[in-house]
């Protein structure tokens, strides 16, 4: 029925133009335009990687009858995150970090200086809120496994617990973002909390 009406209308238009001796006006058919629907998150690639330098803030913990003090000197290290965006601001990340800091074992009669090294592997859920087109605010929660070694004190430990993080990211372009993050683990250690700063690359 609709096709018949369209054909009839076109025929009437052509007939009128011919009998009037005028030029036939072109009939323009507008194609439907697909509108982009904004959901608060601009389109990004699914996979990304973050490479960051890390500063360890140090902490004091009780270890048997001794106190392990990592507060005196800031430690250092690096972190690597591999992420997959799930959509609506959520992402799944695998994190690896390596760190080193100076630790003092303090007892009633002695103080021993040592070097602590540790590795962590974690699986996190991340949510990022895009405050502006370039600035994002994120939070993460995950579960991590930690390997810590202080060879001078004969400490070689494996622990696991929850880890939390929060930070900001700033987009330089579609491929690169600058990132800063504060990280806190429920695993107690002389390395303490960590601050990371680095670059994100979107594939």
TrEMBL record:
Q: Which Pfam families match?
A: OMP_b-brl
**InterPro entries for the chain:** Beta-barrel_OMP, OMP/PagP_B-barrel
Query: Does the record bear Signal in its keywords?
Result: yes
Record has Signal as a keyword: yes
Signal sequence coordinates: 1-20
Q: Which UniProt keywords apply?
A: Signal
Q: Which residues form the Outer membrane protein beta-barrel domain?
A: 69-203
**Name the UniProt record assigns to this protein:** Porin family protein
